[in-house]
Amino acid sequence: MDFEQGSDYRPVTRGMQILLLAASVLVFLIGIPLVLLTTQTESYFAWTIGSALTAAFLGGAYWSSGVLELMAAREKWWANARIAVPAVLLFTVLTLVVTLLHIDKFHFDAPAGHTVAGTWAWLVVYAVVPVIMGWLLLKQRTLAGGDPPRLKTLSTGIKVVLLGQALIMFPIGLGLFLFPLEVAAIWPWGLTALTGRAIGAWLISIGVIAAHAVYENDWARLRTFAASYTILAIMQLIALLRFGNEIEWGTLGGWFYLLFLLSIGVVGVYGLLQQR
Questions:
Q1: From CA 180, how far away is CA 264, in angstroms rounded?
Q2: What is the mean pLDDT of the chain?
Q3: Can you tell me the mean pLDDT for 114-142?
Q4: How is the chain split into domains, by residue range?
Q5: Phi and psi (nearest 5°) for 239?
Q6: In 115-126, which positions are buried (b, 16+ CB within 10 angstroms) versus exposed (e)?
Q7: How far, in Å, are 10, 72, 237 from residue 244 at the CA level?
Q8: Is the pTM above the cut of 0.90?
Q9: C-beta of residue 87 within 8 angstroms of C-beta of residue 212
């Protein structure tokens, strides 16, 4: 849904569009070794991930966020793009904290030059992007103009599902971030302190964006969210097909995780259909 050029709606600043576009490229590049070279993170990623399922999970999350940022960068009005910004800003801050907490695990002294270069690039990205995005967000909020009217609000059922997903992801993510080894006991596959916190950062951020979608309450504002949510579910289901042997399917945790992914996919596809 587009709106008239001369309207009083608040636009997305050029700086925010450029940053979101750049961020989409960066997260796609970060996801390449995780998705395509999943079992070779000791050479092609910033730290070694012993669990292939964890690496694939992270790669799928990065690629789905790339879709979110790329589509948001192409939006004209802030109301249609802002679903991407708070969660992305939060994620970058959390990931910087994770990096600093586990800096000894990163490949700064790896024998291969490309590994060292990629690790330093990781640190620079997560040190710089939150500062720039935070500044651009403050600048964005000072622009004059309002939001377009809500044209196609979410049904009560979808709101309940999204809030339920947020209320599951946010507490588990926060627990993994703060107490990774303790909370890892309820996760369906094995985690280390570093990978637990990395996944926790994603769960917190995705939980925030699910709750944010309920706040926006308009499918016209949520097309980027719907596409990203759909890709997230698809990528995680592919990860399960590839490395699902790491899950103990005799327990309820694995099946709950699968059903939760399906619920994300259903919401995402339903949101895409609403764009018609």
A1: 24
A2: 94
A3: 94
A4: 14-274
A5: -60, -40
A6: bbebbeebbebb
A7: 45, 32, 9
A8: yes
A9: yes
